């Protein structure tokens, strides 16, 4: 077993040809801040360059996979111009898409909350396993935000995607996610990582070049259907949404400033939605 790299917001270990990247900000449900974004990119660099690694598993420490992008960090930036939002969101988008573009298969092992940007990472991975306690979704529209990497419609159908995204559903159970095709398999919470490693070992047993080129062929099929261009267009609209603000965003931020993030989230939850 090797433990390459020194990180503050994630951990990385390599065991029997599997690189395990674990989001490690459990006190904030592994909310993704700029430091984590940078460290995830560095961990992927290491895993991709290591010839011994055949597959990459991404998981979360503590009670959740990830609560998405860090709202406190976002709010602390204050008023942000369209140019600044472009820089921020393009960095977010590029990191999410690294899991899709990675030359080695990526596996998300999801438990607890997996929402917002965390959900998009799970969707960008080649395979997703969910513990029975997992709850997923995208609540962004309920507080005036948008979707960074609009992968969801490419994973499930348009009817399902619109229900989740337009109603801001973020309480999708693991069983429902399986029905929608969002996850490959649902397992007991205590079996999640063993199942992820088992899947990774199945991949490792294949011929390395065949695995790599088959993943590339599948991804190219989506590229030829226009997926990349569609995602870039969706990102442009998200930049406009974020830069424009709006009354919902203003109210969410006012409550957060005056009463704290929990109160702001409670206000958001009170605006209906959240189940599927």
Would you give an account of this structure?
With 276 residues, the protein is of the alpha/beta class. It has one domain (10-269): 2-enoyl-CoA Hydratase, Chain A, domain 1. It is 51% helix and 14% strand. Strand 2 (18-23), helix 1 (34-49) and strand 3 (55-60) form a beta-alpha-beta unit.
Number of helices: 12
Structural class per helix/strand content?
A: alpha/beta
CATH architectural category: Alpha-Beta Complex
Largest sheet descriptor:
6 strands, mixed
The CATH homologous superfamily corresponds to: 2-enoyl-CoA Hydratase, Chain A, domain 1
Calculate the terminal CA-CA distance, rounded to whole Å.
41 Å
* Helix percentage range: 40-55%
Strand fraction equals 5-15%
Which consecutive residue ranges, at least 5 long each, have pLDDT under 50?
none
Number of domains: 1
Spatial strand arrangement across the major sheet: 1-2-3-4-6-9
Helix/strand order, N-terminal first = EEHEHHEEHEEHHEHEHHHHH
- What's the β-strand tally? 9
Determine and state the CATH class: Alpha Beta
Reported by name, the CATH topology is 2-enoyl-CoA Hydratase, Chain A, domain 1
**Global shape:** globular
Roughly how many Å is the radius of gyration? 18 Å
Mean pLDDT: 92
């Amino acid at each position: 077993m090797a433990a390459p790299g020194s990180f503050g917001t994630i951990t990385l270990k390599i065991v029997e040809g599997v690189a395990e990247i674990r989001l490690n900000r459990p006190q904030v449900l592994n909310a993704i801040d700029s430091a984590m974004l940078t460290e995830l990119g560095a961990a992927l660099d290491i895993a991709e360059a290591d010839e011994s690694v055949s597959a990459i598993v991404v998981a979360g420490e503590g009670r959740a996979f990830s609560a998405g992008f860090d709202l406190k960090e976002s709010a602390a930036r204050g008023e942000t111009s369209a140019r600044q939002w472009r820089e921020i969101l393009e960095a977010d988008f590029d990191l999410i898409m690294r899991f899709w573009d990675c030359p080695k298969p990526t596996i998300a092992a999801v438990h607890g909350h997996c929402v917002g940007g965390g959900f998009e990472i799970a969707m960008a991975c080649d395979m997703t396993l969910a513990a029975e306690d997992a709850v997923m979704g995208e609540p962004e529209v309920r507080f005036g935000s948008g979707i960074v990497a609009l992968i969801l419609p490419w994973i499930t159908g348009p009817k399902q995607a619109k229900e989740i995204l337009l109603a801001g559903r973020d309480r999708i159970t693991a069983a429902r996610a399986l029905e929608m095709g969002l996850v490959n398999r649902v397992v007991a919470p205590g079996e999640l990582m063993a199942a992820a490693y088992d899947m990774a070992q199945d991949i490792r047993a294949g011929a390395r070049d065949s695995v790599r080129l088959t993943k590339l062929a599948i991804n190219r099929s989506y590229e030829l259907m226009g997926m990349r261009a569609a995602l870039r267009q969706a990102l442009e609209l998200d930049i406009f949404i974020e830069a424009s603000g709006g009354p919902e965003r203003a109210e969410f931020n006012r409550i957060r400033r005056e009463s704290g993030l929990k109160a702001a989230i409670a206000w958001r939850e009170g605006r209906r939605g959240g189940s599927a």
